[in-house]
Amino acid sequence: MENVILVDEHNVEIGTSEKLKAHQDGLLHRAFSIFIFNSKDELLIQQRAEGKYHSAGLWTNTCCSHPLPKMDLVECGKQRLLEEMGLKVDDLIVKNYFIYRTEFSNGLIEHELDYILIGHSEDTPILNPEEAQDFSWISLEDLKAKIEMNPNHFTFWLKEIFNRGLM
Fold first, then answer.
1. What phi, psi does 37 have (nearest 5°)?
2. How many Cα atoms are found within 13 Å in the side-chain-facing hemisphere of 16?
3. Alpha carbons 164 and 156: distance in angstroms, whole number
4. How do the pLDDT tens digits run along the chain, 167 residues long?
5. pTM over cut 0.85
6. Which residues carry out catalysis?
């Protein structure tokens, strides 16, 4: 059972909750969204696996997850990036964070304080098929154009990050 860190709107920890329960009840909790760039300034995006509990099959940033209680945020990001995309990245840094809330058609609610983590890699990902089914390297300009043309092909939080000018 994976727990998430519950926070208030000022990012003060107020406890933990089982991950699914937090998403069922719409509890505000910490998350992170990782953006890995290559030397051509292209972003590595992934298509979420069809078996994901929400946003299945949609395109999103390199990797997303939740920091574990009592573990460093960046270290959690590095660990998750290795588990999900098979990438080892040493230069992961926190760029920003924001709060968003959205409801999905299956009744789950994402209410997250989402940290944006940035890193660099030239490696080809080795996808964990339970997490991601495809990947692509793309310029931010091309990604923004694709989101504008087909917004239903992309995750809510990725669109929010672009709409809020956080990248």
1. -115, 150
2. 10
3. 12
4. 689 999 999 999 999 999 999 999 999 999 999 999 999 999 999 999 998 888 889 999 999 999 999 999 999 999 999 999 999 999 999 999 999 999 998 899 999 999 999 999 999 999 999 999 999 999 999 999 999 999 999 999 999 998 888 76
5. yes
6. 64, 112
Confidence (pLDDT) at 4: 96
Q: Which class is domain 3-161?
A: alpha beta
HEC profile for 108-163? CEEEEEEEEEEEECCCCCCCCCCCEEEEEEEEHHHHHHHHHHCHHHECHHHHHHHH
Burial level of 8, CB count in 10 A (0-12/13-18/19+)? exposed
In terms of Cβ atoms closer than 10 Å to its own Cβ (0-12, 13-18, 19+), residue 165 is: exposed
Counting runs of H as helices and runs of E as strands, what totals does the chain give?
A: 4, 9
CA distance 156 to 153: 10
Domain boundaries, the chain: 3-161
Q: How many alpha carbons lie under 13 Å from residue 8 in its C-beta half-sphere?
A: 3
